[in-house]
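Hi F.,

I've been meaning to write this up properly since the lab meeting, where we talked about keeping a consistent format for the predictions we share between groups. The idea is simple: the sequence comes first, exactly as it goes in, then the structure tokens exactly as they come out, then a line or two of notes. No screenshots and no reformatting. I'm using this chain as the first example so we have something concrete to point to.
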Amino acid sequence: MSDPVAYRTLLQDLDRWSGDVQRRHPGVIPCRAGCSACCHGPFDISALDSALVLAAVRSLPPEQQAEVMAVARDQVEEMADLEPHWKSPWDIATLGEDRFDALCDAMADEPCPLLDPEGRCRIYEDRPLVCRVMGVPMATAHDTLDNACPIIDLHPDYAALPPQLFDLAAFEQTEQVLAAETTGRETTIAHLLVGSLKFEVVHSMGRCNIFLRSPPRKRLPDDTNRPAGADPGTETGSL
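Output, unedited:
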């Protein structure tokens, strides 16, 4: 298992690069809290990203967890209608790049499950890698990555911003080392959450209680001490 601190530190290197670009070009880059133009449609996240996202969602208040999961479940159902043969654990590699791209295009207007009603990311400090490379065109030693911001044409100075140099090779080398120590798959945020945080939200006396469902198991002798009607496959608590 890779060190989540090491991956977070790597992502912060990318954040510093982006922040430096913004300081060198004040007022040019329109990215700000509440701008969610690039936060719509499904997108792939790595196993490294998944670990950070899950930990961040588990730290949210129960009411926010419930809101996130409601959106995630709806999107998983919609994706199941579009790709009925794509099953858990929803590995993008099994679906294929072309079919996944078509799926993303079909759901391009769907907001990320992690957006709040004001369009802010609920887990901004732990957002995935792909979210951090949006908004600034990147120049590497051998290639150029275009700015994929969907509202770039609304800002002429922003559209004219030249690619900014970044040592992507060194970044990816470290990322590959960390990924080799991590088990998992590329999937979407909605599939990650639904597959990893299966729960039912029960509202009782104005409180939002989370019930985590564990796999069914055989009744053990000490289960005879459980209260009548208790479900041995249910645990209560926070995520």
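Notes:
Residues 50 and 192 are 7 Å apart (CA to CA).
DSSP finds nine helices and six strands in the chain.

If this format works for you, I'll send the rest the same way.

G.
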